Amino acid sequence: MGEIAPVVRNLADRIAAGARSKGYQLLGDRTPENSSGIVSFRKPGIEAEEVVRILRSQGIATAPRSGWVRTSPHFYISLGEIDRMLEALP
Predict the structure, then answer these.
(1) pLDDT tens-digit readout, 39-90
(2) Residue 82: helix, strand or coil by DSSP?
(3) Pick from 32, 22, 34, 6: which is nearest to 69 by CA?
């Protein structure tokens, strides 16, 4: 478990930074003390369900949760897969 948690946190941090760079808002602040493998984000002007539909059409699994797009990468997800998801974000 001690080796998996930092990998998951790194993937989630990459999602958070990439989503932010594309104009998405994050749900909550990510700090070393409270970060987890779950990242939720939204963008004004586009519904979470639409973002999830776009990603799903490209084989990327996310979920709409109360107006937010929820991601939860695990250790077996590659950085390339994260980058592909970020590129697919509208």
Answers:
(1) 999 999 999 999 999 999 999 999 999 999 999 999 899 999 999 999 999 9
(2) helix
(3) 22
User: What is the C-alpha separation between 54 and 43, in angstroms, rounded?
Assistant: 14
Query: Can you count the helices (H) and strands (E) in the chain?
Result: 3, 4
Give dist(CA 87, CA 90) in Å, integer.
Answer: 8
CA distances from 56 to 5, 66, 69, 76 (A): 26, 18, 12, 19
**Residue 5 is encoded by which pair of tokens?**
């948690």
Q: pTM higher than 0.70, yes or no?
A: yes
Tokens of 31: 């700090």
**Res. 16 pLDDT band, cuts 50 70 90:** very high
> What's the DSSP call for residue 21?
H
